[in-house]
Amino acid sequence: MKLKFFTKLKLCILPAAAGLLLFYFLPFLKVLYYSVLKGQYQKEFVWLRNYKNVLTNQYFQLACFNTLKLIAICVPLFLLLAILISLLSLYAGRMGRFVRKLSILPLFLPSVSVVAAFLLVFEKVESELPIYSIFLWKYIGMGVVILVAAFSSVEPEIYEAARMDGAGPLTMHAYITLPVCAKPIQFTMILGVVYCFRTFRESYLYYGANYPPDYSYTLQYYMNNQFLKLNYQSMAASSVMITLLLAGFVALCSGRKNGAE
Amino acid sequence: MAKFFGKILIHIFQLVIAVCLLLPVVLTVTKATLADFFSVLVEEFWFYPKFWFSLGIAAAIGIGSVVVAVLAAVGLKFGRIKHVKGILFVLLLLMMMPLQTTLLPNYIGLRDLSLLDKTEALILPMLASPFAIYLMYQYMDSVPYEGFEAARLETGSVFRILCSVILPQMRACIAAVFVFMFAEGFNMVEQPLYFVKKETLKPLSVLAESLTSANSHLIFAVGILCMIPMLLLYGFYEEELTEGLGHLKA
What CATH homologous superfamily does B53-245 map to? Predict the structure, then answer.
């Protein structure tokens, strides 16, 4: 009876496991296999030639550069803004609660509506500014929600003790809140990097083309165009590279954290 | 005195942020005229079928992914499965992958099941969402279940325990996952571009641009109409959304 019950519980994960296997894990093995073949119909093993082709492709290099630029500029801004908004919102009473709730609204709004509005705001701007703003506007709520949850779970006694010792709010937050919440802050940063790889949809609708201006041509565009050109070999190779890179990044970040515990 | 000014500054900062957050929404609303609404809702024949099709897909994805995620989370939390930490880490990695890298595996999976160019192609790959499963597990892990052991002695039925002990505790997270996945489904652009070729199977999110290209000012009216279901869901579940999403952690 007992064993049967836990078997039933174990079986609960079947739908999820089936979905993940059918649409993620098994096909990914195929992607790996395709990435070392010469062509879709030429089953010739070419070692890493596809990878070399992708890496030396000038559009891929441009895309890499633009994606890195996006990460370098937007992730620090994202983190800083998220920390500022969440920390200050805890001091702003009802107003702060309102801002906290409002901040996640953009996550749920349809891209079509969002892009139409941003096209109005940045009518004549010819730079990557619109895309960067959409990124910050859309995803800031995720950071705020996570950080507010973390900040408000810090024990009030710690602040009480610090106040007794004469610490001001700035010192308290610099020396207590931020170190105590290092884990969620790091997670927010990881999310920021991940979201940089996600801002394709808005950009695609914003420029309405498969080839945006050079400064906005990110890796997502490269992948998208390889797919539309039915260039599965390049797409598979770049897919594998990006997957490994991101997996390594996430593993490194969370691995170090687990080690510190 | 300094404290007072500090408070004022903080409130001004929050106000600026609120205005920035709302600005795009307000701008869209001011740009649409009644005539636009009239032409979209009455004169244009394409709007209703597309709108209901998009909503239907979004609802199917929302409900389906909640069911899959709740079951998976229950199994992982109570099923005494080995290596749960490892599984969670894999889910975390998967959740972090950009759409562009998972689209090719999704596409291959659909192709091998010969589901391309069908409505299922838009729904099925979204059901086993790593994000939904991961968030659901994190939430479940943070709520105490004293009733579980007691209920297990009473009944051997997983379904009854689920309904009486587990689900009532999960309401916030279920609402959050539902709204999030509904939004994902209502909002998808890349999946229909890759997975379906028939125009009839493409949702509003993809076609809005091209359908309004003849008179482009209609896009604002369509944008507002698309916002309405999301604003309603957000309005109903804002508490649950912040509560549910706040449990996301590494």
Answer: MetI-like (1.10.3720.10)
